[in-house]
Amino acid sequence: MDINWPTLQRLRRGFLAGTAGNADYWRTAEDLRQYDDTFAQRIGWKWDFVLRDLAELGWQPTGANIVDWGCGSGVASRAVLDQFGWNAQTKLWLSDRSPLAVRFATERVRAKHPELRIERVIPDRIDLLIISHVLTEMSQPQIEQLVQLATKAGAVIWVEPGTYDVSLTLIAIRERLRKQFQLVAPCTHQNQCGILAPENKPHWCHFFAEPPGEIFIDSFWTKFGQQMEIDLRSLPLSYLVLDRRPVPASAANATRVIGRPNLFKPYAEVLGCSAKGVCACKVMKRTHPDVYRQLKKGKCPSRLEVETEGDQITGWKI
What we know:
2 domains; 5-stranded antiparallel beta sheet
């Protein structure tokens, strides 16, 4: 893989400094190729996490019109097409402030799906709106415009970095839209977000995707992590999936595990979100050694049916 490290470092500096939204940072098609082969792969792994979650729920979008807003190199729409497929009626609209990015994303999608119809002007009817990693580059008025666009969609899949500030912004958008849509994921209920309770101010709604295991024995990815000062094991994300249809039954009446468990010698502490709110519960090592070992290995199911006694989890069913 032919990598231009100065280009990747320039892009990363802009992302970290929060200045990426000031202007179009794609200078050439080669910039996009460098990005798509590296940073975008990590975003793609986050999308794989979200799409697997939706598959476990039995959720699929309907309709023919898919819009990838702020498409960048097109990694999100490629992941969606790979997961859900497409037919002769499907159209994909690629939208970005950068004409260079739209051209690049079009070429990458067509390389995998040469017969798919691809358009550039956002249609009046949007069946599925895809949004990926844009909030850190937008002003409040721009976010407001995007939320207004989301109100016109039949369904929305919105994936963002799993930082505290971005998560709270996405929660605010959730609260704006929850009266117009059904909340599919990660939420297991339609109530106000439990993170907004005053006692939960230190917490935020985020999860961790798993990168492919082979990257840890790949010399390129090892060098990439070192050069970019990125922990390849950590892929935090926040996301929101909305639909105007009723949610799948498997999405309701469950507890969603947020973030990662905190492990202590006598117990593990799990932050769970349900219709009752967000609370930290303990899994005692003495009473549930098998579950404790699973949590220690990082094998924590995303949704649980839990039984609690006080602040202790006394049992769960996946």
